[in-house]
thioredoxin-dependent peroxiredoxin
Amino acid sequence: MSLQASLQSAYADFQKAAPAPVIDTFNSGVQALQDSFDASKAIQPGQKLPEFTLQDATGNAVTSASLLAKGPLLLSFYRGEWCPFCNLELRALQSRLPEFTAAGVTLAAVSPHLPDTSLSVAEKHALEFPVLSDVGNQLARQLGIVWKQPEAFGPILAGFGVDWEKKYGNQSLEVPIPATVLVGADGVVRNVFLDPDYTKRLEPEAALEIAEPSSLSPSFSPRYAATIRLVLAPHARSILTPQNPGQPPHQTTT
């Protein structure tokens, strides 16, 4: 089963189990984000990834330089361990980890969780790639992908057993918009998947395709990349089609 099929199944289960007012609250919040989010202010292909130092699940400091020293880097930003869609994505990435490793690409997951919760995530899903804590969304904020969820989400999440203070160290309700960022070993962003609809994620197969060597070479031109906006591209090749010289990166919108 594809990741997207699993995500759709999880959403269908949620719609069956959750009370209608809860579904309406979440849907209206996501719709408001879709209406207001300006993807042009988010990290773009061709830009440098900001340097960072984040703690991993065991509390050790991990720098962007140390990750990029190994080669290309694929960063997966997720909301939290309480999000079933995030959990499905993390497991899907883990299932393809040998292929990413064979391609020379380092995977790392990033959320605003405190390290203790990141450790729980890593252990729960037997993740063999770094799970990093971007406490306070400092890195996500530099990338322009932070969403302050509506206050109405707070009581609902608490009702689901989410202790925000314990898991995040604050009461902000801020999370990253789920995003996948492919970075070359030179620190230049090569491709971005970004969707305000948290039920939409990049298929690992598509991530492997955009991580092909030709798109990671130092001579790679950003105009061959794409920022995926608001919709999920069915195949990575469709977002890597070369455009006419001088044109900006292709933009897919609803």
Remarks:
- DSSP finds ten helices and eleven strands in the chain.
